[in-house]
Amino acid sequence: MQISLKPCKDPKTIATDCLVVFSNGQLSGALTAINEASDGAIDALLKRGDFKGKVAETLYIPYLPGIRAKRLLLVGTGDSETVSDADADKLLQSGIAVLNKQQSKDCCLLFGDLRVDGRKASWLLQRSAQLLEVSRYRYSETLSKAKPGSALRRAVLQGSNSDSNRKLVEYGQQTAEGINVTRRLGDLPGNICTPDFLAKESRKLARQFEKVKVSVLDEKKMQQLGMGALLSVSAGSDQPARLIAIEYQGAAKSQRPHVLVGKGVTFDTGGISLKPGAKMDEMKYDMCGAASVVGTLRAVAGAELKVNVVGIVAAAENMPSGRATKPGDIVTSMSGQTIEILNTDAEGRLVLCDALTYAGKYKPASVIDIATLTGACVVALGKHAIGLYSNQDDFAAELQNCGNEARDRAWPMPLWDDYQPQLDSNFADMANIGGPEAGSVTAACFLSRFCKDYRWAHLDIAGAAWLSGANKGATGRPVGLLFNYLQSKAKD
Ligand code: BES
Ligand code: MN
Ligand code: ZN
Fold first, then answer.
1. What tens digit of pLDDT does each residue of 10-26 get?
2. Helix, strand, coil % (nearest 5) of the chain?
3. What residues are in contact with ligand 1 under a 6 Å CB criterion?
4. Whose CA, among 252, 403, 423, 437, lies 20 to 30 Å from 96?
């Protein structure tokens, strides 16, 4: 959609399908002008108590004489001077939901005195742009009749049309595009979204953006590189594994890239250590880490950030079969370290460890892996916080801050050496499981053994990547966090 900035000084003259006014329920600012133009209609309506201005309350007025806008939508901001960032999201989302429901083609958002705790005024611009664009996502690909799409085509945001504001709006929109790419890949079923499908979708980015190059390794090439851990996961599947590298060059070649590594298990049955049947369909989402890598690269390329980024996707399907890996099997990873596979359902770390070793060849400035890695992380943190691990404390703090800024929050977890012995094996350098205690931590400990040579963080998104129940669907997290990080690394 087209999003532009205008100061919007005289609300009654704004021509739009729907004028959205953020208000605390008092007659002030834009509402005073609209009230005068409409012969006191707003005053009457406030006095009747039809709109109290509570946070995220909405009042939709389909027609109001005296103003040029076809419709008016009031969105409550509560009575405190500033709102929390969480409330800001709530009220923006409730307003946008009404806009979508009413099928408005264009809209104009008047923020008035709306201020968000601890954020610059311009934060609202980037955030509104992102939420408007995200609201357009519909999953329709496997429906015989497509759902009606969003009617929203144009939005005007109240703000000065400065270079810096325009850039923030652009970043918000590009982040949303990336989020929507991630959601789509996550929501597609496992019989469509296979490792090869992920490779083909990644290749599309190279066609779309000049600064993106994509290369794909097949199983033969991975064999030559010694990726025995990754290949042990695809062994039982008829779908061949793929290792996809998406290289975005937004800065001088000499600048070391930031590397993102995504777990792309396109379906996780557990393998021979078969999962129970309940909710197993949700294991189509086990490639959401990979999807977030593709989505972030999409966003970064769209925003033309001046930074070098490499996305690596380790794509494989985890199936039981006569050729599948068995508990007790021992494989050699690309790093040379051997692994006793005691549980074939702990496969994410197996695809990731070889991809992380491969990442080293880029001489990275930093490496972040993103994975729906452990059920234990869901137990520990639920769906709100992403589990955050790093081999450098300042890196964890940096990423936590990026998550806060982007409202895509992560919480630091311990990567202490004390947990490492849980991975001891009698027959190999390590086992792929660490027993019942601290499952998310021992999974991170496993990965840390392959990331000794660079600044590394691990995001366990098992709880955050998708929602279950009536709202089942991919969330597009943590594209917001990752984009914010890369935005902060980009040179202007
Ligand atoms: N993909 C799962 C983790 C998962 C489970 C994510 C549920 C989201 C919801 C992962 O491959 C897995 O199966 N992990 C095992 C590890 C265990 C065998 C050590 C788990 O968490 O049970
Ligand atoms: Mn598994
Ligand atoms: Zn898995």
1. 999 999 999 999 999 99
2. 40, 20, 40
3. 268, 286, 343, 345-348, 372-376, 378, 433, 439, 462
4. 403
